[in-house]
Amino acid sequence: MTDTPAALREAHHADVSGGWLRPAVFGAMDGLVTNIALIAGVGGGGVSPRTVVLTGTAGLVAGAISMGLGEYTSVRSANEQVAAEVAKERRELERHPEAEARELADAWVARGLPRDLAMQVAEAVRRNPEEALRVHVREELGVDPDDQPSPWAAAISSFLFFSVGALVPLLPYLLGLTSLWLALGVGGFGLFVAGAVVARFTNRPWWSSGLRQLLLGGLAAAATYAIGTLIGVQSAL
């Protein structure tokens, strides 16, 4: 059986435009690590299970809102910066089309294309103003002006996945099981699973990605647990 070349298959590459996957992954990981560490810190301080639930819930709500707003602002600002640079490039193409064509040809020559051929292609591109704009933006800025991530998709993904991640270590307490170590164990399992899922998009070994996330989250939880234990409830009063 002959193997079909990748270039002839549709969607043989994953979507790396960054619309929702990056904020979703970042939100889930941040939610898990934040609330695992938060619960470890207050639990290590010896507070009551009710206080652990209150603290974890407050961390979930505040963190999810912060993540959503932060992602929206970040992506919106990045898109506005790209739009400003595209407008600048459009003005340059209108005012100095020959110089811009030479600049494009020089970039291709630097990559190994013969100068005569590079100039022919640059001149052909210049005859189509919109395509010329797209090509120049891709070459000079490294972005596709027609394929920018949605700030709303980023914000909603980050908000939802942070909430899900932050909820995981709280589940034992919400179900009436008030063991701090059980909550941390459930959170650690969530970190491992999340890391293993991410490996599906990165081609890393699932166990390696899962262990990496578990280790990072464990270090954060250990640090806050130690601080909570040192301070303690009595010291904080």
From TrEMBL:
<feature type="transmembrane region" description="Helical">
    <location>
        <begin position="214"/>
        <end position="233"/>
    </location>
</feature>
<keyword id="KW-1133">Transmembrane helix</keyword>
<keyword id="KW-0472">Membrane</keyword>
<dbReference type="Pfam" id="PF01988">
    <property type="entry name" value="VIT1"/>
</dbReference>
<dbReference type="InterPro" id="IPR008217">
    <property type="entry name" value="Ccc1_fam"/>
</dbReference>
<feature type="transmembrane region" description="Helical">
    <location>
        <begin position="180"/>
        <end position="202"/>
    </location>
</feature>
<protein>
    <recommendedName>
        <fullName>VIT family protein</fullName>
    </recommendedName>
</protein>
<feature type="transmembrane region" description="Helical">
    <location>
        <begin position="152"/>
        <end position="174"/>
    </location>
</feature>
<keyword id="KW-0812">Transmembrane</keyword>
